[in-house]
Amino acid sequence: MKLQADWLRDPGTAAVMRMLTGAGHQAYFVGGCVRDELLGRDVGDIDISTDARPETVMKLAERAGLKPVGTGVDHGTVTVVAEGQPHEVTTFRRDVETDGRRAVVAFSDRIEEDAARRDFTMNALYADSTGEVLDPTGEGLSDLSARRLRFIGRPEDRIREDYLRALRFFRFSAWFGDPDAGFDPDALAAISTLNSGLETLSRERVGHEMRKLLAAPDPAPAVGGMARTGVLPTLLPGAETAALAPLVHLEAEQRIAPDWLRRLAALNPPEATERLRLSRPEGRRLDTILNAVGTAAGPGELGYRHGADIARDILLLRAASLSQPVPPGALAQAETGAAATFPLRAADLPDGVTGPEIGRMLADRESRWIASGFTATREDLLG
Asked: What pTM does this model have?
């Protein structure tokens, strides 16, 4: 099998491959760029695997007039910038020791050893500079064709090497798996047994994975698998799953782009800001959505008070939690509210209105204005 991809012929990419092979070293594209090209998806990062040691890669890059950056030399990775584009060049490796988070690696000369330490069969596909695909595990191409996500070797071994792989299994399933085929039973059994190891992971790593998982076209089956194997309650105690699938359906029905934080809100997870290390703006948005879902505020008021985007999220989540459609016209009403400007100021109130009465009177008039569909004028409200 051979890749037919424009990025193979990119001048910078070709230069990086040529600097390695021209010096007698093996060099292969690996991982996501090969997988995504075979699936017909957009290719992002270009990762290259080689038998050249990191210090050799640095010297070869300098000699070729390219820019090497020692981003992870101790673990075998050098970023080589060519034509303004970064290429992650990593020496073949094998694991010597792991603790569930970090690995002690030894460099290798064999592509088979490098493939054996990777996570999933579909991520252990390689391609040479001509696009010829190599499948060292003998299972990557068939699994990718079937959209079947499987660990390389024994799932228990791969998970113990890095417990984050239990979460990555569901993230990759959401993006690349066949939703109708279900999950690999051996993987689920291993994850169920070892899910407590997730507690050793940093919250930043978990938050990063959850963002990517929830941004998938339909993360509901994967999140359901996380709940059944104990991954979800381990990472987000108290999270609920019932509203997620209806929310995804409503997004598609309303032609609204997926949003990972809106989907996180559907899980209604306590302490999500801390457990996933959300930024302050992300945490505020999540709290705003969750606090407003159960209120009696109508679509127009939600748009007026929170803006059109957050109002839309609230309305979608309300409907999803009840497994009902979004009320007709609700999203348009939210847009109207978001564009409206309250026509009264304190200076417009009658003489003699002072102190706390100013706030009460403005709030009363504002309620009347909202109830009018934002049509009441200044004169109407003062009359």
From this structure: 0.90
